[in-house]
Structures are given as C-alpha cells and as structure tokens.
Amino acid sequence: MHDTIFINQISYDLEKLLQDCWHRLINGANSAKNAFHTASVATINKGMPEIRTVVLRKAVPEEQTLIFHTDYRSPKLSQIRNNKAISWLFYDEKARIQLRIKSLATIHHKDELSLKRWNESRLESRKCYLVQPAPSTQLTYPSDGLAEHISNAQFNEESLAPGYENFVVVSNQVFEIDWLFLNHGGHRRAKFVYEPDKVNKSWLVP
User: How far apart are alpha carbons 165 and 23 in whole angstroms?
Assistant: First the structure.
C-alpha cells in the first residue's frame, strides 16, 4: 500500500502513474477543452529563461515525444538552435495535477514531418503563419499581423499555402517528467527519468 496512491478512488503505482501522465498528455493534444491542451514552455535566451504558452499538438508515449508548432521567424527558434533544452509546465486545476517536463527539441522545417503536420492542420490555424512583419516585431499600433484581405477571407488551401514557408514543427524528446498531486490530505510527488534502456521511477517529497 505504501507504493500506491489513490486519485479519484483509483489506485496508482509508479508504472500506472507514468501511463496516466501520458494519457493526460494525449487527451490534451486531442481536445482544445482539456487542461493540458496548452502548456508553458521555457527556453534559454542569452542566459535567461524565457517562457510562453504553446498548444500541445501531439503526444507520442511510445517515442516519449511532445510536439508543438511555431513560426520559423519566431525568436524562440533561434533560442532553440542555440540551446535545445526545453522545460514544460502543465497544470490541471480541476484534477490538481501538475507536470513539469524536460525535453530536447528538434526543429522540422520544410521536411517530411512538417509537411505531414501542415496537411493535417486546420485551415484556420494556418493563417497564423502569414503574419507580416515577423512575430515579435515592434508596432506603433495594435494588430494581429494579418493583411485585411487575409483576415476577412474565406480560407482555402491555395490562399494559405504561402504560410508553409514559415511553418515549423518542434519535436521534443522527453527525458524527465516530474508529477505533483496537490491534495488537502497531503501532497504527493513522483519523478520519471528516461535512460537508454529503462525508466527510473521514484517517489519524492512534495
């Protein structure tokens, strides 16, 4: 009994808990209403952490991979090129479960994976990659960066195709998951560290 925890009257040991982490990440990627659909992602910029919210686009437990999309011109891309270490923060307020994840990023631009993800993306999502000037450019007025005819257009494959030039898939190889359950009866915490031939699983003091 000391090696298990009950969440919503379901018993979890460390192996089941790891499976539950990935199950929640998969659900987050698949549903915009899920608490894990968005995450805070931190990169390193000139020696300082820089954090922003990204949409979790795909979670693949068999490959320990998390995917998000971004613009090729975004400052975060140059940061990832300089340091591929990325830190993720997910929190489900209702479940009171937090995941802190460490990963190493790989950039995919105009390759097989990026084309596949582009073709699978919604047309509404593709317009983000048509903004001019580039993301993070300073403006003298508030704007979404889209030309008026793009903002009001009926989107189709042809009109949005130029955005593919700026479309990037960032694939992240997860090497550590820190799980925290906040509970008035006593918090619980666990850590999962991926090694080449095994996963080290351990309970931690919250």
Answer: 33
Overall domain count for the chain: 1
Cβ atoms within 10 A of the Cβ of 16, count? Answer: 14
CA 27 remoteness from chain centre: 12
**How does pLDDT run along the chain (206 residues), one tens digit per residue?**
478 877 777 688 999 999 999 999 999 999 999 999 999 999 999 999 999 999 999 999 999 999 999 999 999 999 999 999 999 999 999 999 999 999 999 999 999 999 999 999 988 888 889 888 888 888 877 877 777 766 666 677 888 888 899 999 999 999 999 999 998 888 999 999 999 999 999 999 99
pTM: 0.91
Note down the domain range covering 178.
5-121+170-204
Tell me whether residue 159 is in a domain.
no
